[in-house]
């Protein structure tokens, strides 16, 4: 835990008692703060009470005594409209912050030189965060990984000059962190996302920009117009990363053909690393290489770290082989943009697709249909997806994941391809048949293992 000593003696309001909220309360209390917490969910509030946390409805509180409101990142700050706690805090002149801001204040107060790598972007944040942390840890560094990737930042060990914090940040977290100033700030890419919470793409991009704007070293993927413009505005030290084939950007690091180049020199070779297949992962690896080199990790140590990276569950996760057939769990792909990455990375694909469809369905993927040997349709989207596939890709209406996995495995085993791939990349939300994408991916993994 990182005790929030900079809040000692202060009275703090906190809204949102999920995992990060509970961790924040404990850190504030350990640092000497008086915390009054609340959550609109009666179950969450009761769970907090059982842990000895002071829980009271903040609508009835005296806000004049609070120094800060700590807001959970899932709670609207601005759009579609501010949460009611935001209005109360602003009316009382109370600052509104998040748990990342508390960490930043602890770092500034006690270990301002502590290494802090902050990673953001629309796609690839979690993989890049995990990859940077893995390479650094495999090189022998004391690494703490958290933030949006799943572990609350204040649950981690405190900042120290001998310890590297590698932290994934969402826009919601960045928006609640006014003093953000990482050692290295990473911005991977920007495409429209969460606009219901940010209003416009310009607002969304401006929030993301703060990660690299304030960093000692900025690492920016420059393959989209928004990131290229952000890189153009950066005045301090910066490394630009470009994936060849994505525009004509000038950059210090170039990723192409499963390799990362610096000038004419191969900095990293990704060929044969199953967890880093596909051009999107070449960008992730190039950015990670730039980040870890800032801490002296290169050459053989970089190569060994990349090679041993296991990847993340449900993100193009290789869950098994059966003879020549490779089984890949990409359940995290809940829209066409995410599935595009997987279809680009493989050929001879037996594609398990479907669920609760997003706007546009799989129509954006038509240019990649030549990579698909057969599609196996599951879930509520089946009829609509069948219309898109009709005349372009052979398909089978399977209904459930169990049936689709069995049929895909049988067909792939009979294929004459060198490495047929059974790919679960649904391009859909899961909640027509599964509570979340993790449960869907776990079920696929179980089904593959049951095949032998």
UniProtKB/TrEMBL annotation:
Tell me the protein's name: UDP-N-acetylmuramoylalanine--D-glutamate ligase
CC per GO annotation: cytoplasm
From which organism does this entry originate? Methylobacterium gnaphalii
Q: Where found?
A: Cytoplasm
Q: A single GO molecular function, which one?
A: tetrahydrofolylpolyglutamate synthase activity
Annotated residues that bind ATP are located at 121-127
Gene name for this UniProt entry: murD
Listed SUPFAM superfamilies: MurD-like peptide ligases, catalytic domain, MurD-like peptide ligases, peptide-binding domain, NAD(P)-binding Rossmann-fold domains
Family under the similarity heading: Belongs to the MurCDEF family.
Which reaction does this enzyme catalyse, per its entry? UDP-N-acetyl-alpha-D-muramoyl-L-alanine + D-glutamate + ATP = UDP-N-acetyl-alpha-D-muramoyl-L-alanyl-D-glutamate + ADP + phosphate + H(+)
| Keyword Cell wall biogenesis/degradation belongs to the record | yes
In terms of domain of life, where is this protein from? Bacteria
**Which residue numbers delimit the Mur ligase central domain?**
119-292
Q: Which UniProt keywords apply?
A: ATP-binding, Cell cycle, Cell division, Cell shape, Cell wall biogenesis/degradation, Cytoplasm, Ligase, Nucleotide-binding, Peptidoglycan synthesis
Recite the lineage of the species.
Answer: Bacteria, Pseudomonadati, Pseudomonadota, Alphaproteobacteria, Hyphomicrobiales
Record's function text? Cell wall formation. Catalyzes the addition of glutamate to the nucleotide precursor UDP-N-acetylmuramoyl-L-alanine (UMA).
Residue limits of the Mur ligase C-terminal domain?
A: 314-428
Q: Please state the Enzyme Commission number of this protein.
A: 6.3.2.9
Report the record's Gene Ontology biological process terms.
cell division; cell wall organization; peptidoglycan biosynthetic process; regulation of cell shape
């Amino acid at each position: 835990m990182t005790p929030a000593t900079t809040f000692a003696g202060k009275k703090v309001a906190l809204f949102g008692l999920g995992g990060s909220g509970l961790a924040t309360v404990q850190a504030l209390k350990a640092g000497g703060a008086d915390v009054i917490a609340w959550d609109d969910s009666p179950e969450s509030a009761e769970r907090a009470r059982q842990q000895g946390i002071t829980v009271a409805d903040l609508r009835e509180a005296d806000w004049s005594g609070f120094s800060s409101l700590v807001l959970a990142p899932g709670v609207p700050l601005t759009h579609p409209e501010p949460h009611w706690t935001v209005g109360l805090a602003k009316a009382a002149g109370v600052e509104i912050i998040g748990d990342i801001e508390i960490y930043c204040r602890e770092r500034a107060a006690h270990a301002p030189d502590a290494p802090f790598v902050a990673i953001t972007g629309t796609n690839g944040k979690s993989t890049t965060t995990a990859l940077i942390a893995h390479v650094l840890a495999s090189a022998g560094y004391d690494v703490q990984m958290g933030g949006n990737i799943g572990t609350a930042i204040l649950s981690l060990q405190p900042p120290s000059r001998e310890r590297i914090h590698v932290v994934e940040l969402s826009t919601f977290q960045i928006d609640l962190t006014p003093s953000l100033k990482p050692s290295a700030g990473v911005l991977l890419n920007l495409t429209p996302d969460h606009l219901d919470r940010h209003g416009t793409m310009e607002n969304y991009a401006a929030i993301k920009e703060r990660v690299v704007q304030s960093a000692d070293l900025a690492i920016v993927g420059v393959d989209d117009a928004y990131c290229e413009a952000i890189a153009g505005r950066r005045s301090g030290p910066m490394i630009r990363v470009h994936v060849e084939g994505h525009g004509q950007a000038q950059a210090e690091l170039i990723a192409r053909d499963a390799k990362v180049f610096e000038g004419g020199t191969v900095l990293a070779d990704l060929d044969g690393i199953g967890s880093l297949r596909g051009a999107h992962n070449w960008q992730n690896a190039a950015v990670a290489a730039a980040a870890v080199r800032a801490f002296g990790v290169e050459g053989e140590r970089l190569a060994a770290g990349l090679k041993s990276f296991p990847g993340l569950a449900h993100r193009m996760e290789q869950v098994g082989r059966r003879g020549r057939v490779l089984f890949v769990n990409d359940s995290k792909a809940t829209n066409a943009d995410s599935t595009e990455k997987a279809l680009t990375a493989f050929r001879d694909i037996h594609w398990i697709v479907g669920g609760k469809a997003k706007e546009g369905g799989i129509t954006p993927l038509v240019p990649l249909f030549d990579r698909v040997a057969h599609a196996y349709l599951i879930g509520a989207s089946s009829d609509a997806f069948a219309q898109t596939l009709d005349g372009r890709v052979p398909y089978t209406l399977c209904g459930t994941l169990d049936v689709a996995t069995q049929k895909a495995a049988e067909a792939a085993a009979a294929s004459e391809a060198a490495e047929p791939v059974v790919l679960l990349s649904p391009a859909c939300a899961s909640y027509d048949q599964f509570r979340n994408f993790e449960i869907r991916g776990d079920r696929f993994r179980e089904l593959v293992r049951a095949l032998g």
